[in-house]
């Protein structure tokens, strides 16, 4: 266990994030994200912090796309700061930031898991319709798996964690404390 007694002094920008997100990742967070992004200074590194127990992975991907597009089109540096809890969709959002621009506060936990799906399939009606219903549901599941795997690859890209390791550990909710995330190269540093 390493101690980072006053590591924050090495990263003064992280003390005052331009965008501060907290709570459930949903349409409301997405709107707050866009409002804060519009109000942020146009120049210099952009610091985004998040504290979340999770939520909608598609909203997380949409916010992440905004960060990626900003970086790709302006060359602007974007910094991620996870505080306390970066679970599920929060980790999906984190994956939009390169590992060398990710930070966690001391005591923060990441939680990575497989996407969840529930529901039932109504198999009633003409027999010739039933394979169509089943194929449609199978296609939905297959696409969700592909999206999940894209996200997993983005989370581990540039770290010491292999895609296969994440895929295996995510089956049973992988909790990673800040120090371990740092040691695994999933984040640059702990402050």
Q: Which features characterize this protein?
A:
single chain; 191 residues; alpha/beta; 2-enoyl-CoA Hydratase, Chain A, domain 1; seven-stranded mixed beta sheet; 6 helices; 40% helix; ClpP/TepA
Task: Summarize the structure in words.
The protein is an alpha/beta fold and 191 residues long. It has one domain (8-190): 2-enoyl-CoA Hydratase, Chain A, domain 1 (Alpha-Beta Complex). It has six helices and seven strands. The protein has helices spanning 27-39, 57-74, 89-94, 130-156, 163-169, 178-183; strands at residues 19-22, 46-52, 78-87, 102-104, 109-112, 174-177, 189-190. Strands 1, 2, 3, 4, 5, 6 and 7 form a seven-stranded mixed beta sheet that branches. Helix 1 links the parallel strand 1 (19-22) and strand 2 (46-52). Helix 1 (27-39) packs parallel to helix 2. InterPro entries: ClpP/crotonase-like_dom_sf, ClpP/TepA. Pfam families: CLP_protease. This is Peptidase S14.
């Amino acid at each position: 266990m390493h101690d980072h007694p006053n590591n924050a002094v090495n990263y003064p920008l992280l003390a005052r994030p331009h965008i501060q997100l907290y709570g459930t990742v949903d349409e409301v967070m997405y709107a707050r994200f866009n409002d804060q992004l519009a109000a942020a200074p146009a120049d210099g590194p952009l610091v985004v912090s998040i504290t979340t127990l999770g939520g909608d992975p598609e909203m997380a991907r949409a916010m992440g796309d905004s960060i990626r597009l900003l970086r790709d089109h302006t060359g602007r540096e974007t910094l991620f700061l996870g505080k306390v809890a970066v679970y599920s969709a929060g980790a999906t959002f984190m994956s939009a930031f390169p590992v060398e621009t990710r930070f966690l506060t001391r005591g923060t936990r990441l939680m990575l898991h497989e996407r969840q799906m529930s529901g039932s399939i109504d198999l009633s009606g003409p027999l010739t319709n039933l394979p169509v219903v089943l194929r449609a549901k199978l296609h939905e599941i297959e696409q969700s798996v592909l999206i999940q795997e894209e996200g997993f690859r983005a989370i581990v890209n540039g770290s010491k964690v292999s895609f296969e390791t994440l895929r295996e550990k995510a089956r049973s909710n992988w909790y990673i404390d800040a120090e371990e995330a740092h040691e695994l190269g999933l984040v640059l540093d702990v402050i």
